[in-house]
Design goal:
Elements lengths: L5 H11 L7 H17 L18 H10 L3 E4 L2 H4 L10 E3 L1 H9 L4 E4 L3
Parallel strand pairs: 1-2, 1-3
């Protein structure tokens, strides 16, 4: 969901007006997803600002990759995929069909939009 899109604005309006419905089952699923992310991922605080993407909202993924010292970025986002494989940030990106090979080779990956 893109910031400022109709779905984004609808969700923000729902939260602001206390009109978000949750159940025990949906909250449990959300907590399971968050626990999985916690188990599989590591938290990084980017310290370098990057301005490489044609969509500035995607620069945060390059900043995260730099902070994590990622060897590849796995993405289906056209604004990231259009970048030169060795962009000025010094990162290499792998398209989805190359992701399995890169990860199998031991590369740490930052993922977004992969199907």
């Amino acid at each position: 969901m893109s910031r400022g899109s109709v779905p984004d604005r609808a969700v923000r309006h729902a939260f602001a007006s206390n009109r978000v419905a949750v159940s025990e089952a949906t909250m449990a699923e959300l907590l399971d997803v968050l626990a999985l992310l916690d188990a599989l991922g590591a938290f990084f605080v980017p310290t370098e600002a990057v301005a490489e993407c044609r969509d500035a909202k995607d620069d945060k993924y390059l900043e995260l990759a730099l902070a994590a010292r990622a060897e590849v970025i796995v993405s289906g986002d056209d604004d990231l995929l259009v970048l030169h494989p060795c962009c000025a940030a010094g990162l290499t990106r792998a398209v989805q069909r190359q992701a399995t090979q890169a990860i199998t080779a031991g590369a740490r990956a930052v993922g977004r939009g992969a199907a």
